[in-house]
Amino acid sequence: QVQLVESGGGLVQAGGSLRLSCVASGLTFSRYGMGWFRQAPGKEREVVAGIKWSGTETDYADSVRGRFTISRDNAKNTVVLQMNSLRPEDTAVYYCASGKVAYASDVHSNSKQYAYWGQGTQVTVSS
User: Fold this and answer.
1) Residues contacting 23, CB < 8 A, separation 6+
2) Inter-CA distances, 82 with 41, 63, 71, 113, 114, Å
3) pLDDT at 97
4) Distances, alpha carbon 60 to alpha carbons 7, 11, 51, 76, in Å
5) b/e map 8-24, b = 16+ CB within 10 Å
6) Using CB atoms within 10 A as the burial measure, which of 12, 81, 111, 121 is most buried?
7) 30 φ/ψ angles, rounded to the nearest 5 degrees
């Protein structure tokens, strides 16, 4: 079965950096777009970043654009979210997800476009 396993979360001071990784198994990783989402307490899950199956296109939420970078290594079945200049409002559980459609033509930004989800990793940014 498909498994997505996130790692790299933790506690960091405002202005610091974290690098989240997500390793996928049970699917042909290189065929599917991948995304990172987050959910803060009392809030809905929101998209953070997405990357096309080929790695040639990315997209970001306005709140993280210029601070976060999504990338993928199809040889290692891994998608990475590099988070710099972290703010307290970035505190949330972060989830990676894999797209529903192989070789999708666009970068997915809606949670309904994703089929499988990881268990999440906690990111806490202190002020």
Assistant:
1) 4, 5, 7, 76, 77, 78
2) 22, 14, 8, 23, 21
3) 98
4) 20, 23, 9, 23
5) bbeebeeeeebebbbbb
6) 81
7) -65, -10
Q: Please state the three-class secondary structure of 26-81 as a single string.
A: CCCHHHEEEEEEEECCCCCCEEEEEECCCCCCEEECCCCCCCEEEEEECCCCEEEE
Helix (H, G, I), strand (E, B) or coil at 2: coil
Which residue do the tokens 């009392």 mark?
Answer: 42
Q: Tokens 């972290």 map to which residue?
A: 86
Residue in this structure with the two tokens 């990783």, named with its chain if needed: 29
Burial of 104 (0-12, 13-18, 19+ CB in 10 A): middle
Joined tokens for residue 54 = 């080929």
Number of other residues whose CB lies within 10 A of the CB of residue 67: 15
Q: Which residues of the chain have pLDDT under 50?
A: none
Cβ atoms of 7 and 24 within 8 Å: the answer is: no
- pLDDT digits over 41-56, tens only? 999 999 999 999 999 9
